[in-house]
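Page 47, continued from p. 46.
Same chain as before, 153 aa.
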Amino acid sequence: MVAPDDYVFEFPNPADGPVTLALRPDHGIQDLSRLGNPLAPTGWTLRVDSKAPPEGLQISEFMADNAHTLRDDDGDRVDWIEIQNTGNTAASLENWGLSTDPTKPLLWQFPAVIVPQGGFLIVYASGKNRSQANQPLHTNFKLSKSGGYLALT
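Result:
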C-alpha cells in the first residue's frame, strides 16, 4: 500500500543503453513544508544493462587442484566453484556463464537454475560439461592450479 505522500513511478522496460528520466514541468510534487516548495530536479541519467548479473550473485569460493574436499556425483575429486546469492530475492542464472577466458565470457553457460535468497550453488569445474537443470552442474573447463582468470558473466 502506498501512503498519500509517496509517489510510485512506472515505466515500460527500456532498451539497453543510456536512459534519461525527467519530470514534466507541471509535475505538482512538493515537499511537506508549510510553503510547499516544488521539487526542482534536473533529471536523472542511468544505463540499462539487461545482461548485468542479478544483484547479490558472486563467486564466493572455489577450489582448484582438489585433493581433499568435495567429490562430484561420479565420486571424483574435481575442481569446484561456489556461487552465493547475498541478494534480497532468489536469482536466476539462466543465460549466465562462467569463464576462465576473458575473450570468451560464456565459455560455459548455466541452464535455468535458481539460487535462493541467501543460498549457494556448487558448480564442478571438471571438464565434463553437464548443464542439465536439477542435476549436478559441471563446466566444460577445469581450473588452473597455478591461478588465472575466473568470472561469473
